[in-house]
Amino acid sequence: MSKAFTREDDQPEAPVLARRNSSLPPGTQNLMTPDGAQRLREEFARLQATREALLTTKGDPDKAQKLAAIEQRALVLDDSLRTASVVQPPAAPDGHVRFGAVVTVRDPAGKPATHRIVGVDEVDFDRGWVSWRSPIAKALLNARVGQRVRVKLPGGETELEVIAVAYD
Question: CATH second-level architecture of 101-167?
């Protein structure tokens, strides 16, 4: 559209907010670690504080878009927290891999890797945190120290040996 047909005071419309569709199949629990739930609650509180500060800001041409982004993220966090089933770590770990475990594995080349099995809303690949729904977590769940498991990865199938299991 030509600039001649717009007013300078026209502000872009804020996007329509929508609740997300869960990445979990219907009827599947939204498992979450206690610290994962706490991190999401803290993020929600920070968003609310940012929103309140932004509401009092004058003259910010991007205010509507910033508020919309905050509201959208708040909806996602609210959905996650509202549907979360927080799973406590085992009181007496038995060496088996359970939800929330920090698992150290060794691949066939002898290279170790550490993964933490977390909820779908807690995944952080940079930290080695994988969803309990992921192929690697599915292969590791219920395994024990010393056990070898087969896992299908994008690069093909491999075998991993569980060398340590811990809980934070």
Answer: Roll (3.10)
